[in-house]
Amino acid sequence: MTEHVDRSEPEAAAPSVPAAVTPADAADAARLVAFGLQPKLQPARDQEYTELLRRYREDPPFARLADAVAAGLGLVVLEVSPRAGMAVTAAEDSVFAVRMGDYARRTSADGSDRFLHGLAHLAVAAMAFPRPEDLADDGYIGRVTVNGVDAFVRQACRRLEERAEEQGENTDPATDAPGLEAAWRIWVRRSATGATKDARRLAGSTTGIVGKAAAFLTDSGFLQRTGDDNGGTYRTTARYQLQVRDMAGTAAMAELLELGVVPVTDGTPSLLPAEDTDDLDLVADAGLPFHSA
Fold first, then answer.
1. Can you tell me the distance from the alpha carbon of 233 to that of 227, in angstroms, rounded to the nearest whole number?
2. Alpha carbon distance 127, 235 (integer Å)
3. Angle between helices 179-189 and 146-166 in degrees, nearest 10
4. How many angstroms separate the CA atoms of 42 and 47, rounded?
5. Integer angstrom CA distances of residue 114 from 61, 67, 134, 155, 286
6. Residue 170 exposure: Cα atoms within 13 Å on the Cβ side
């Protein structure tokens, strides 16, 4: 009697089927993006936020879902971590994009002041992270003062003026000149402080413009105010470092850093403001850290 040998192939294991996305998953992903749109909210102070960040890091399908929600809103995810939370920036076509015209309207700035406000933001970023290694170091914290940023811009303006004279160029910027070339005469001719009758800083002065920029960045969760010395002292946040990394390759940022101006930290201007004259025509697109209007 012979034994029956079963030569049939073993049944193949059924392929794993990814779990279906539930409405609850979608709601959690949208909730995480909503947390990311609250830049002042620190993950360590909100248990739900902390838990959603952990889920993002440990659950790839959930991470992809949250990324898709952000992309649908026109947001670019810069980093998701306990230090920065869900750090996002708005793409140009996003409803969350901040445009220079919108910012200028918030500050009641006219046409020429819009350009100076943009330059102030550029200078804060360059002074907060003056070296590539500072920008690359997650543990680095930049510190700026309002007066120091104004002094930094004035030193940069002086360097631009010297460069123009050395090259025998007309000090009146041409319409196709780089943005900073168009800016230096406008900035140095503007009063550094000015004063109202009750000794308050004029909003249209250069330190007033830098102060507005710093206040906006603070409201946006990019800076934290640490004191009142030198017109106001501030420290950078992880979110701001990520934002500056994102804009570090812009032409205007590179142009400012290439001047080799050592950042001024004591708030003492090294160049007195020149007498006010008529405003100059502005370059339409200077590559400043705002989307064009």
1. 5
2. 11
3. 120
4. 10
5. 43, 33, 29, 21, 11
6. 5
pLDDT-based confidence at 89, cuts 50/70/90?
Answer: confident
Which class for 116: exposed (0-12), middle (13-18), buried (19 or more C-beta within 10 A)?
buried
Q: What is the pLDDT of residues 250-280, one digit of tens each?
A: 555 566 656 555 443 333 333 233 333 333 3
- Name the helix (H) or strand (E) containing 25: helix 23-36
The pLDDT value recorded for residue 145 is 94
Number of neighbours of residue 34 by Cβ within 10 angstroms: 15
In this structure, of 31-35, 88-92, 236-240, the range with the lowest mean pLDDT score is: 88-92
Distance CA 152, CA 123 (A): 8
**Dihedral angle, C-alpha 235, 241, 243, 245, nearest 10 °:** 140
Q: Answer for the pair 136, 129: CB distance below 8 angstroms, yes or no.
A: no
| CA gap 149, 206 in Å, rounded | 10
Q: How confident is the model at residue 189 (pLDDT cuts 50, 70, 90)?
A: confident
Residue that has been written with the tokens 């004279």 in this structure: 165
